[in-house]
Amino acid sequence: MMRPTLLLCLIFLVACGSDQTTEPPAPKPVEGTLSLELRDQLTITLTPPESTKTTITLAPSATYGLLAAGETTVEGRVAPLPEANATLYTAKLDVPAQSGGPCGDEPISVALSLHRQGLHRQGQNTTVIGGLSAYCGAGRWHGVPVRVLRLAGELPVF
User: How would you write the pLDDT of the chain (158 residues) with one tens digit per residue?
Assistant: First the structure.
């Protein structure tokens, strides 16, 4: 008598199950404040990547005559480098000419590059280092930069 009752309970429980699957919540953007040339700050926000693409928002506390004041949002890339146990974040910014800046009346091309080295002993490494390389001229992403601005700080992992 016990077996049929147990079997009926099991069938009932399976029949009451739901076919609906709930998707896990999407990862939230990560934000950090990096040191910009040691004395200023750059607030950076990265949306979780879809494949290798991400949206990057930059808000510098100083422009150095090379960056736009306020927030700038650009499309960037996340490049996992498993052979080096590292991740690279890159983006290209088009900045209008900045009066009093080193490029005069020319627009400015700025390349962002941030590097995160693998795992830390206590878990994920939140430290990133890198820079912003500025070139005079529109769409110019190579050659000798007019200035390289150093970046370092903590940026949470997705």
Answer: 556 565 555 565 555 555 566 777 777 899 999 999 999 999 999 998 888 999 999 999 999 999 999 999 999 999 999 898 899 999 999 999 998 899 999 999 999 999 999 866 566 789 999 999 999 999 998 899 999 999 999 999 87
Q: Report the predicted TM-score, pTM, of the whole model to 2 decimal places.
A: 0.80
> Does residue 57 contact residue 44 with C-beta atoms inside 8 Å?
yes
Cα separation, 78 vs 47, in Å, equals 10
CA torsion angle 31 53 140 116 (round to 10): 50
**Helices then strands, each counted (H, E), the chain:** 1, 10
In the block, residue with structure tokens 């800046």: 101
Count of Cβ atoms closer than 10 Å to residue 89 Cβ: 21
Measured distance CA(130)–CA(152) in Å, rounded: 6
